[in-house]
């Protein structure tokens, strides 16, 4: 038995619509039935528009339509219990049932208690957002299911809101704090460690409409942006001014999410990571207060470095609403080079030797023979299927060519061959496009597989050893495994393909992931160089950082977010007590 519910601004006042919505939600909760829409409504219009899937004109916005299952029924079916958390929850999250894996488990299944959004909160959010929010099941499920991650959660958000201003965010956070309902900030959804999961349900804040450039200061080489703008869109905006933002993570990443995860990319070897390229942040804290972390000055010794505290906090301390970024001049000239090696160790040795030579390369990328094979299959190329290094040299034409010749000599001294370089713009863009699409090429090798992606980083001097040890295990595994490395700063990824329906393959993928993390930790490295912790890497933090550091992080979190509403269940292990 179902029922029909519709809010029409033409036929009902806002107050009347809210009363109708409230009665409909209460009826659905009490009957545990899904909600149905008439044929004139297409659920999830906002989400489809943001994902480029069509479904209506550009002016169409999400309606307040529930889908086929209500959050309470979903939580009940999973055995979750809905109850409110007080301040004590931030000190010891004993209420969470989080399967963090162990020695052989890489994925996280969050079975945290569903902290249900009460009707009073729904009413007040409707007053703030009108039809710029949704209760549609499909839309909530899309936001609660990671798009690029194998991590899972039982619960999904109870509601998704689409703020268009900092004031919208302030009101949302203040309301969620008032009712002690969790908040999950949502950006480009490109993270792979479960950052946007909603283990407690709650309110998902989709920042996609906060995507404006607020101010560009060409002479100061900085730009003020909202968090929803993507780095690729920002660079298109900056190109006519001869400027660019130098971080280049995965396509689709937004500036807010890049700050939250402290990301980097292939250019980090020259320009640093996100923490080196942010001048100022504005963020909304858990109590609804807006703070800024600094001025536009290029350097400052005024107070605690709050920007660096928020960068990498993964939404657990506040919601980022504005970012001032350091920009760079577009290179005058560049050369891209490729060369081949008999082993990944030889390739890694050349990357190390190049960095020790003092040459300021802008990129040094390593791809193993499996990844090159995947690229050939996906793009129709005919590259030698052996470990390969890709370099980029920038500067004046003379300087770029001089660097290229020096590296060519280094390559010849380390068993390298087939050294080629290109200076034509289209040829250079094609080579880097191949690198940027390496993950999708690897996935195409096993179309029905999922990817478990590692993100270890070690001191540069240990890179060759770490890759060699890992590669022996990868080559001996029955799974298809491809290696991609930002070799200039010791960071490498392994794309491990496995069939999620086959338990033996999942266990093997987890074993390989665990092995590589602990190999890196034994070499004074880290479990994550740029992807962040999320839910997937929490179990490694005690070994990497120690209990003292984790307790300090927990104290900071408990002080700034005593009701534990800011992206709970991420970054800080839930079993940790103060």
Automatic annotation (TrEMBL):
Give the main localization category: mitochondrion
Q: Which named protein is this? A: D-lactate dehydrogenase (cytochrome)
Cross-referenced Pfam families: FAD-oxidase_C, FAD_binding_4
Please provide the Gene Ontology terms (biological process) for this protein. Answer: lactate catabolic process
Q: Which cofactor does it need?
A: FAD
Q: What is its EC number?
A: 1.1.2.4
Q: Which UniProt keywords apply?
A: FAD, Flavoprotein, Mitochondrion, Oxidoreductase, Transit peptide
Q: Which domain of life is it from?
A: Eukaryota
Q: Which PROSITE patterns match?
A: FAD_PCMH
Q: Which regions form coiled coils?
A: none
Q: Which GO terms describe its cellular component?
A: mitochondrion
Boundaries of every FAD-binding PCMH-type domain copy: 153-330
Into which EC class is this enzyme placed?
oxidoreductase
Q: Where in the cell is it found?
A: Mitochondrion
The answer on whether this UniProt entry bears the keyword Oxidoreductase reads: yes
Which GO-annotated molecular functions does the record name?
Answer: D-lactate dehydrogenase (cytochrome) activity; D-lactate dehydrogenase (NAD+) activity; FAD binding
| Family as reported in the entry's similarity comment | Belongs to the FAD-binding oxidoreductase/transferase type 4 family.
């Amino acid at each position: 038995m179902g029922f029909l519910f519709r809010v029409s601004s033409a036929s009902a006042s806002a107050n009347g619509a809210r009363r109708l919505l409230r009665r409909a939600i209460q009826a659905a909760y009490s009957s545990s039935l899904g909600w149905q829409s008439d044929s004139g409504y297409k659920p999830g219009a906002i989400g489809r528009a943001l994902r480029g899937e069509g479904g209506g004109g550009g002016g169409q916005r999400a309606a307040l339509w529930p889908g086929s299952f209500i959050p309470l029924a979903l939580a009940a079916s999973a055995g979750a219990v809905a109850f409110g958390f007080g301040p004590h929850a931030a000190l010891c999250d004993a209420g969470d049932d989080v399967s963090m894996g162990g020695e052989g488990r890489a994925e996280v299944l969050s079975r945290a208690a569903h902290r249900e959004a009460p009707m009073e909160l729904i009413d007040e959010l409707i007053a703030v957002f009108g039809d710029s929010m949704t209760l549609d099941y499909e839309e909530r499920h899309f936001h609660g299911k990671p798009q690029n991650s194998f991590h899972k959660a039982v619960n999904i958000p109870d509601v998704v809101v689409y703020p268009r201003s900092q004031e919208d965010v302030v009101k949302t956070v203040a309301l969620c704090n008032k009712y002690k309902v969790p908040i999950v900030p949502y950006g480009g959804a490109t993270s792979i460690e479960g950052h946007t999961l909603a283990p407690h349900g709650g309110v998902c804040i989709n920042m996609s409409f906060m995507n404006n450039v607020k101010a560009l200061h060409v002479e100061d080489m900085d730009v003020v942006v909202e968090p929803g703008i993507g780095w690729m869109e920002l660079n298109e905006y900056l190109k006519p001014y001869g400027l660019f933002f130098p971080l280049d993570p995965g396509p689709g990443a937004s500036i807010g999410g890049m700050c939250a995860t402290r990301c980097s990319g292939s250019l980090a070897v020259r320009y640093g990571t996100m923490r080196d390229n942010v001048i100022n942040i504005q963020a909304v804290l858990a109590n609804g207060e807006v703070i800024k972390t600094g001025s536009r000055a290029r350097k400052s010794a005024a107070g605690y470095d709050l920007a660096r505290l928020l960068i990498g906090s993964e939404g657990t301390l506040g919601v980022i609403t504005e970012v001032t970024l350091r920009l760079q001049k577009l290179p005058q000239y560049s050369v891209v080079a490729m060369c081949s090696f008999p082993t990944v160790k030889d390739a890694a040795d050349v990357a190390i030797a190049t960095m020790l030579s003092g040459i300021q390369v802008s990129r040094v990328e390593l791809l193993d023979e499996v990844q090159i094979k995947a690229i050939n299959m996906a793009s129709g190329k005919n590259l030698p299927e052996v470990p390969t290094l890709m370099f980029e040299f920038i500067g004046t034409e003379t300087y770029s060519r001089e660097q290229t010749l020096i590296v060519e000599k280094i390559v010849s001294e380390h068993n390298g061959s087939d050294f080629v370089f290109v200076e034509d713009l289209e040829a250079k863009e094609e080579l880097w496009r191949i690198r940027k699409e390496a993950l999708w090429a690897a996935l195409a090798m096993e179309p029905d597989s999922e990817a478990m992606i590692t993100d270890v980083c070690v001191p540069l001097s240990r890179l060759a050893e770490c890759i060699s040890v890992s590669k022996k295990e990868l080559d001996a595994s029955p799974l298809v495994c491809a290696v991609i490395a930002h070799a200039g700063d010791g960071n490498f990824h392994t794309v491990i393909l496995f069939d999620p329906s086959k338990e033996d393959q999942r266990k093997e993928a987890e074993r390989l992931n665990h092995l590589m993390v602990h190999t890196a930790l034994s070499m004074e490295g880290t479990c994550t160089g740029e992807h962040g912790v999320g839910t997937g890497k929490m179990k490694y933090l005690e070994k990497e950082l120690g209990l003292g550091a984790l307790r300090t992080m927990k104290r900071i979190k408990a002080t700034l977010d005593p009701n534990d509403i800011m992206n709970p269940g991420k970054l800080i292990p839930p079993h940790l007590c103060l």
